[in-house]
Hints:
Number of helices: 3
Number of strands: 15
Strand order of the largest sheet: 1-2-3-4-5-6-8-9-12-13-14-15
CATH class: Mainly Beta
Shape: globular
Radius of gyration: 19 Å
Strand content: over 45%
CATH topology: Lipocalin
Number of domains: 1
Amino acid sequence: MKFFLTCSIALFMSVTCATAKATEQEFSLSWVISHGNDTLIPFRFAEHDEYNTANSYASIFATTEVGVVEISTAFQLYTPAAPFQKNGKGHDRLYAGVFNYQIALHTKWSNGIQTRFALGADVIGPQTNLDTFQTRLHKRFDVRVPHKKVLEKQIANTTYFATQLEVAYPVEFSWITFRPFTEIRFGYENLARVGVDVFFGGAPSVLSREYVTGQVYTPQAPQGWSVNLGMDYTHVFSSALYPEHSPVEMLNGFMRIRSAIVYQGDGWNAQFGIASIAEQFAGQKHGWQEVAYITAGTSW
């Protein structure tokens, strides 16, 4: 808990320093919160609560002289298939809870390139208390809870320094915008990614990307209704989710595809989307996994 408090204070002080020189005309503030879960799929054919079972993201954006500064916190919850059974479903991935803390700078360069550079920390293991949170939440709604044997085998406590860089180049064709991007990330997973997002009805000037699904979210979308599609390929060099004693072997590459519908009102926006994630480890029983997500944001 002291670590989380220290990170929060450091991030707050960083964004305060970054915005201190901004004039009243140049300064604006907005926030976005997002949640993804495999139980949000309307017509789901596989069991709930497996693999990439839940993730949430909360960000505050501040427009300053040097660019848009974002401070964020997020969590991801990974489980085996049927985690309420003693051994999940036998030969399966390990349970893991992860918290992320980041401060990022969004920059739009004169040549049209957009970048997001972030520094932060990834906290993994029982120290996150995500296993306790999931258990209590499920008990509250009378839903099966993770088996204690599954929790006992979860990924151990570790903290990683994390950094991430995404570079994108939007190209507009009438009311359609193609935004190819590439990303590198180091932390509890070390990876490289290449992909494209396609926006119908206009593309926002500031975008962030949720870790599990790759969904994009923004503090200010084009006014009214819009739709976005995306796909990417990820190459994973190493992952703390698959330690030496892991019962399954990590796959080095996987695909993600996604779609979302967005509405931007006066000072607020909302989004609903569905993403499909390819197999991430050898022997993954249900193959591609669908995760739905909802996002809400406001600015002032």
